[in-house]
């Protein structure tokens, strides 16, 4: 029997930066099972990233209102104490973003940044053990000479290598849920395929549930078992990925399918950064 680990219901997010409130997400629902990969797709501004940030507990509490429920570990992440939320962030729920250079600290070595979740959530871990775990994780995500990468700075790495570093940093505390927000958009097609293949490997070996956010429906089809299509802050279609692809019900979904070129994952199997 499948184990439900996350339940989002009636999520609504409004911004109050202007005279009139702007609703950016409305009536968003999501149930995520352990080890499942769910895709959220839509054009820019469709609300998919805002929904993900809310699940990760990363939305600012200023100039916006949030309603609904995000239930995880017996807690509503929208209303729970900040200390409880911080205990989940990076530990049980981790997130990677589109452009690693905006997330990585340019003046800190890679190893220090990969270890961050361990320093926060496992402060009693000895430094040498932390280093060994970070090096092992860098190797696990496919980075060659991980000891050398550990000592490097972000600007010394390629875009694909930086994204692998971000995945290593996200996975080092062995989260139950990984949210990947457009993790391949800034990469060329071959490297995109390699990153998607890495996420498949993580899901297969660690049983990590993944929420994969993308405007690229072809990548979602290859990675995800289920897909949610968003437009203007609302879910317009959802279902099993193959069913949505073969029998899309909405004109908007058909437009997305028609507009996005296919990516062949086999191109990434032998690629090395």
Ranges where pLDDT stays below 50 over 5 or more residues in a row are 267-273
- Broad structural category: alpha/beta
Tell me, briefly, the overall form. globular
In percent, how helical is the residue content?
A: 25-40%
Question: What is the arithmetic mean of pLDDT?
Answer: 90
Q: List the helices and strands in order.
A: EEEHEEHEHHHHHHEHEHEEHH
Distance between the termini: 40 Å
Key terms:
disordered C terminus; 6-stranded mixed β-sheet; globular; 38% helix; 273 residues; alpha/beta
Short description:
Helices cover 38% and strands 25% of the residues. It is of the alpha/beta class.
Description:
Strands 6-7-8-3-9-10 form a six-stranded mixed β-sheet, with helices on both faces. Helix 6 (127-140) packs across helix 8 (159-171). Mean pLDDT is 90; it is low at 267-273. It is built from twelve helices and ten strands. It has helices at 48-56, 82-88, 100-103, 110-114, 116-121, 127-140, 146-150, 159-171, 189-206, 217-223, 241-246, 251-259, and strands at residues 4-15, 22-33, 37-41, 64-72, 75-76, 93-96, 177-181, 209-214, 226-231, 234-240. The longest helix has 18 residues, at 189-206. It starts with a strand and ends in a 14-residue tail after the last helix. Helix content is 38%, strand content 25%. It is of the alpha/beta class and 273 residues long. Strand 1 and strand 2 form a beta hairpin.
């Amino acid at each position: 029997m499948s184990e439900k680990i996350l339940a989002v219901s009636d999520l609504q997010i409004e911004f109050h930066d202007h005279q009139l409130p702007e609703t950016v997400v409305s009536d968003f629902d999501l149930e995520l099972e352990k080890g499942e990969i769910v895709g959220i797709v839509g054009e820019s501004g469709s609300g998919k990233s805002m929904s993900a940030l809310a699940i990760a507990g990363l939305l600012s509490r200023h100039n916006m209102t949030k309603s609904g429920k995000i239930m995880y570990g017996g807690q509503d992440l929208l209303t729970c104490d900040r200390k409880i939320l911080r205990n989940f962030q990076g530990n049980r729920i981790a997130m990677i973003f589109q452009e690693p250079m905006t997330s990585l600290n340019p003046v800190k070595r890679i190893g220090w940044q990969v270890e961050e979740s361990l320093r926060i959530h496992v402060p009693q871990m000895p430094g040498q053990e932390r280093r060994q775990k970070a090096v092992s994780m860098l190797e696990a995500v496919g980075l060659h000479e991980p000891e050398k990468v550990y000592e490097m700075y972000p600007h010394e790495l390629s875009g694909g290598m930086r994204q692998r570093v971000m995945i290593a940093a996200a996975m080092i505390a062995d989260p139950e849920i990984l949210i990947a927000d457009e993790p391949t958009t800034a990469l060329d097609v071959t490297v995109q395929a390699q990153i998607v293949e890495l996420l498949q490997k993580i899901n297969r070996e660690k049983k990590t549930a993944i929420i994969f956010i993308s405007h690229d429906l072809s990548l979602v089809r290859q990675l995800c078992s289920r897909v949610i299509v968003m437009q203007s802050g609302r879910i317009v279609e959802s279902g099993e990925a193959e069913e949505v692809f073969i029998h899309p019900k909405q004109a908007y979904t058909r437009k997305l399918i028609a507009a996005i070129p296919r990516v062949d994952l086999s191109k990434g199997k032998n690629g090395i950064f």
